[in-house]
Amino acid sequence: MPSRDLTENAAGSAAATPPRRGRKPKQAGAPESTRGLFETGRPGGLHERVYRSLVHAIVSGKFGKGSRLPSEPELAATFSVSRPVVRQALVRLREEGVIQSLRGSGNYVIGVDDLLAEKLSRSSSPQQLQHLLDDLEFRLVIEPEAACLAALRRSPADMQRIEAALRRFEEAHASGAITHHFDYLFHEAIAVAATNPRFVEAIHALEYQPDDERLLLRHLVHFQPSARGTAVIAEHAEVLNLIRRRDGEAAREAMRAHIESARRRLTKYLETLIADRP
To answer: Which parts of the sequence belong to the HTH gntR-type domain (predicted)?
Structure first.
């Protein structure tokens, strides 16, 4: 269960991975440097689970082009598997052109563009878009109230966490990177500031449930072209300012307007997609 004392990991995440059904690795052995970085409960065999978790981390923006992945021992400890299992997953990523191994230095992400193109070719379907609309419908119920409570209950440390998340969000967008992970950190920080762990659990469900194609479709709809992404970040900044001013009612309405804007963008994209199909 997430708590108010959650600390950021190396990627800035403020919470550990929530439990999932089925076989689960022991997180207690995960090194501090990777704790919370990977959704370790993905389905599949051992090396498939490691592979899919690494792909998800890259697609969500946790590891951008040129980023160094954690070492084999760190990954083995994180997933509670042997180093040969980790090596199998890394070999697959290397064969697909996603990473490059440099002797004595580690494994670096290099093939993000090809990976994104391959996954985007499978993502733009009415079914995927409907899943995203379902997510937004759920968020519309939960997140405005979380923003209101955050404005009323937030501590100075909470405010610093929200501000840091938005700053990293802005930097990622300015660099042209996928921003999903940093967007998530912003909303997670607000949920933590609400001081009710149920809000944090709800945000975690939205972060870890979507498949990679859905994350990329979300990036395409909300952050491309760049000017659209800039407008989305401005909506986040408005929510932050209202939480800083402790204006709960206005923070609630600003978060509601932000999510409604996202729903309108997605609905318009879905209508265009259906109209263009033969």
So the answer is: 44-112
In a domain, 12, yes or no: no
Are 41 and 163 members of one domain? no
pLDDT in tens, 123-150: 556 777 788 888 899 999 999 999 999 9
Same domain, 144 and 164: yes
CA distances from 175 to 169, 214, 223 (A): 10, 22, 12
pLDDT value of residue 177:
76
Check whether residue 141 and residue 199 sit in a common domain.
yes
Phi, psi for residue 41 in degrees, rounded to 5: -95, 20
3-class DSSP state of 106: strand
The residue from 80, 111, 142 where one domain ends is: 111
Strands, E, within the chain: which ranges?
99-102, 106-109
CATH no. for residue 62? 1.10.10.10
Q: What distance in Å separates the CA atoms of residue 120 and residue 29, rounded to the nearest whole number?
A: 35
Tokens of 29: 């052995």
What token pair was written down for 110?
A: 């290099």
Cut 0.70: pTM above it: no
Beta carbons of 143 and 187 less than 8 angstroms apart: yes
Structural domain harbouring 196: 122-276
Residue 258: both structure tokens together: 């932000």
Whole-Å CA distances, 136 to 132, 141, 245? 6, 9, 26
